[in-house]
């Protein structure tokens, strides 16, 4: 990565991403959430992907049922068709009752058809880092085979370096971002080890000097989850390339 790369070559992607698709405006990690982001003219979304029992990647944040999908037990114990029959929307509100747990393939196709860029967060269930990275990598590589125009390729991210490594092996041409809560002291070494293009961190883990070191090294810098416009403005003033927000009604695609 060239030091001093300009902002566009560091991060050729949208500046504001809809967190889990729906953020606080529609149920997370569902097609209804993606429709909401599209209706509000967002240009990019972030969402979480986990493997169902049949090895099909589905959109899901928690490894256990209960919070967004009624039920008990591990998500990874249910086949994707069973998950698709569950209700991932009723918790959010009656308008979304019966919204299915969608498969990655379906969501990626829908987003591509509607011109939304995607940050695919690989979120392995415990013990499934390698197979999740591998399968998600293969699926996205099939949908985006060596396409020209790097800005259109999805970006993988993960808290799991192992999953990110498996995605790299399966889909070397799909770019990667390392996801962390706090920024580790050896962030540069970790990014280099996985040949990442970006670092994604909690917005409150950052200060102006650290942001400058990361972007100055040529890496894209994305912060989550930023729901206050004043904070978003401050982060952008530090040179942060992108933020992920639940409140894209307040911090929209063209936020400055
Ligand atoms: O990718 C940014 C953010 O989504 C990471 O945290 O827990 O919301 O997936 P989480
Ligand atoms: Mg996420």
TrEMBL record:
Taxonomic lineage of the native organism: Bacteria, Pseudomonadati, Pseudomonadota, Betaproteobacteria, Burkholderiales
Its EC number(s): 3.1.4.46
Keywords of this entry: Hydrolase
Pfam families: GDPD
Top EC class of this enzyme: hydrolase
Molecular-function annotations in GO: glycerophosphodiester phosphodiesterase activity
Keyword Protease (UniProt): no
Native species: Pigmentiphaga humi
CDD domains for the chain: GDPD_EcUgpQ_like
Domain GP-PDE: from-to ranges: 14-255
The protein's name: Glycerophosphoryl diester phosphodiesterase
Keyword Hydrolase: yes
Coiled coil residues, start to end: none
Cleavable signal peptide: none
GO biological process, one term: lipid metabolic process
């Amino acid at each position: 990565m060239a030091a001093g790369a300009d902002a566009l070559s560091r991060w050729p992607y949208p500046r504001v991403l809809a967190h889990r698709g729906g953020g606080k405006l529609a149920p997370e990690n569902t097609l209804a959430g993606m429709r909401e982001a599209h209706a509000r003219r967002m240009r990019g979304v972030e969402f979480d992907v986990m493997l169902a029992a049949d090895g099909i990647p589905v959109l899901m944040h928690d490894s256990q049922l209960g919070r967004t999908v009624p039920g008990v037990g591990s998500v990874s114990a249910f086949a994707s068709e069973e998950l698709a029959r569950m209700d991932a929307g009723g918790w959010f509100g009656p308008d979304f009752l019966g919204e299915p747990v969608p498969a990655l393939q379906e969501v990626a196709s829908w987003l591509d058809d509607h011109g939304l860029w995607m940050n695919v967060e690989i979120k392995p269930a415990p013990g499934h880092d390698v197979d999740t990275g591998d399968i998600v990598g293969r699926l996205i590589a099939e949908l985006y085979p060596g396409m020209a125009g790097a800005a259109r390729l999805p970006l993988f991210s993960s808290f799991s370096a192992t999953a990110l490594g498996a995605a790299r092996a399966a889909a070397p041409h799909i770019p990667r971002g390392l996801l962390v809560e706090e920024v580790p002291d050896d962030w540069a070494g970790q990014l280099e080890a996985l040949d990442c293009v970006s670092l994604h961190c909690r917005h409150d883990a950052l200060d102006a000097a650290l942001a400058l070191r990361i972007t100055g090294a040529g890496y894209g810098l994305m912060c989550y989850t930023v729901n206050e416009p004043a904070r978003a403005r401050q982060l952008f003033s530090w040179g942060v390339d992108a933020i992920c927000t639940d409140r894209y009604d307040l911090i929209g695609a063209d936020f400055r």
